[in-house]
Amino acid sequence: MSIYNYLVRKPNGEILSMETYRGKTMLIVNTANQCRFTYQFEDLQKMYDRYGKENFVVLGFPCDQFGHQNPEDGEETKHLCKVNYGVTFPIFELVQVNGEATHPLFNYLKHEVDYREFGKASMQEKMLAEAIVQLAPSFLDGRNIRWNFTKFLVDANGKTVARFEPTDSQLDIEKAIETLL
């Protein structure tokens, strides 16, 4: 399978093939608009603006699995992201990223790259790991996505090359993007 074999749903219900993004470097992110990491929308938009001319795109997939932090549907989420954070990169319909109803795209992404041990990189990450233990301890296991704003970097050939946790440095993410461009 290739990333280009997957279909995603836009907020208006239209089905889109990931083939649409062939030849582009992609940063695929599970997002939420009521999360303490929501400020990252501004950072993601800056990356989209900075690198978009170089065949780079950010793809946002709202998810309500982490503390009920995105209860709105995709259309409302897209609107809130634009109004509150100036987001112009594509926002899709809500997805699940863990469990039995995991969207096939995220199931694929989670198995394409290694994940790192979580909860020890910084104080912020330690605090988040403790919160996850209270709310959804199974999310800390294995390949599961731990929280909103986990990012997958996919090169222009469709190969998933990196996974970034929500607490990872913006500078590290940009450095990885620049290496691919």
Automatic annotation (TrEMBL):
InterPro entries: Glutathione_peroxidase, Thioredoxin-like_sf. Transmembrane segments: none annotated. This is Glutathione peroxidase. The keyword Oxidoreductase applies. Belongs to the glutathione peroxidase family. The lineage of its organism: Bacteria, Bacillati, Bacillota, Bacilli, Bacillales. One of its GO terms (molecular function) is peroxidase activity. CDD domains: GSH_Peroxidase (cd00340). It comes from the Bacteria. Keywords: Oxidoreductase, Peroxidase. The keyword Cell membrane does not apply.
